[in-house]
Known about the structure:
Helix content is 42%, strand content 6%. The chain has helices at 19-33, 46-49, 55-62, and strands at residues 40-41, 44-45. It has a two-stranded antiparallel ribbon.
Amino acid sequence: xxxxxxxxxxxxxxxxxxxxxxxxxxxxxxxxxxxxxxxxxxxxxxxxxxxxxxxxxxxxxxxx
Length: 64
């Protein structure tokens, strides 16, 4: 059930200055729940290479 809990009391507002903290919290949660394998697109980790993954790659990966 830990995978559906909020990441923190303060909700992420979508701003760029808070994105790095959001990604860090999300990575911790994915690791704790064993979901890191589904957080990759074409071998690229969402947590380490999120700026290098295109929308097209994400859409294509959902069709597989």
